[in-house]
Write a structure and sequence with these properties.
about 260 residues; mainly alpha; 12 helices; disordered C terminus; ARM-like; ARM-type_fold
């Protein structure tokens, strides 16, 4: 207990270093920022200071809202690790305004801005980390996290960018897999995605269906949602049964993977 002021002082200094590195153009700034975020992921949960937790959450969200580039990918991944540590330590963080902003930041980071054209299964490390972060958030506070993700996904579904729509479907699937118990209408984003004109979106829907088939607890809501998914898949295959393009082969392969 005598060392507690020392550790609080170290945490405050780490926060200051992190903010300074975030705004710095020095070539070593990303490394410094990663180190600060990593330290905070240990210090904040251990010290259980409301002020430190709030400030750490704000820093992580700011890092995630920075423009994506190779030089900041490691920083964004570490920011997602920090969010996971904070949420595991204090699940009620997600109930407040800052928590909703954190879910939104992770949701945005789940978009793979430059997916591989040759391999639809290849996903950026940041997007993978963000999806896993959403899973952890939904496990910690299912009601708030899933509601925030579904709201964001509804807005993304109207985007003209197919990658936005695909990322939203992935985000929904991972959040639901973390919550394991689903609200009414949970399958609507997946069913709608199967009718999308873009292969990225249909691929996301198929992968989400496989993931949720393994993760969700049995319930009336889950059964009803799966019936809707099956109907959507049946319509998709009937509509496209005349062709055997590479896109169709991918859809069939992913759907049959379950």
């Amino acid at each position: 207990m005598q060392d507690l002021p020392h550790w609080h002082g170290a945490a405050d200094a780490t926060l200051e270093v992190g903010w300074s590195a975030l705004s710095s153009s020095d070539q070593d700034a990303p490394k410094v920022l990663v180190a600060a975020l990593r330290a905070l992921s240990r210090l904040a949960p251990a010290l259980k200071s409301e002020a430190l937790t709030s400030a750490s959450l704000q820093l992580a969200c700011r890092v995630l809202n920075c423009s994506s580039s190779p030089s900041v990918e490691s920083c964004q991944i570490q920011a997602l690790q920090l969010l996971k540590a904070l949420v595991r330590s204090e699940p009620m963080l997600l109930a407040g305004q800052q928590g909703r902003a954190a879910v939104g930041a992770a949701f945005s980071a789940a978009k793979d801005a430059a997916p591989s054209v040759d391999d639809l299964d290849e996903v950026s490390n940041t997007a993978l980390s963000a999806r896993e972060c959403l899973r952890v958030m939904a496990k910690a506070h299912p009601t708030q996290a899933v509601a925030s993700v579904l709201e964001a996904a509804k807005a993304a579904a109207a985007s003209a960018d197919a990658l936005d729509r695909a990322a939203a479907v992935h985000a929904v699937a991972f959040a639901l897999s973390g919550a394991r118990e689903v609200p009414a209408g949970w399958a609507v984003p997946l069913a709608n995605a199967l009718r999308d004109s873009a292969v990225w979106v249909r691929q996301a829907a198929c992968e989400g269906a496989v993931l949720l088939a393994e993760e969700l607890k049995s319930s009336q809501s889950v059964t009803g949602g799966r019936v809707g998914q099956c109907a959507a898949e049946s319509r998709l295959h009937r509509r496209r049964s005349g062709g055997r393009s590479g896109e169709e082969h991918i859809e069939r392969r992913v759907t049959l993977r379950s």
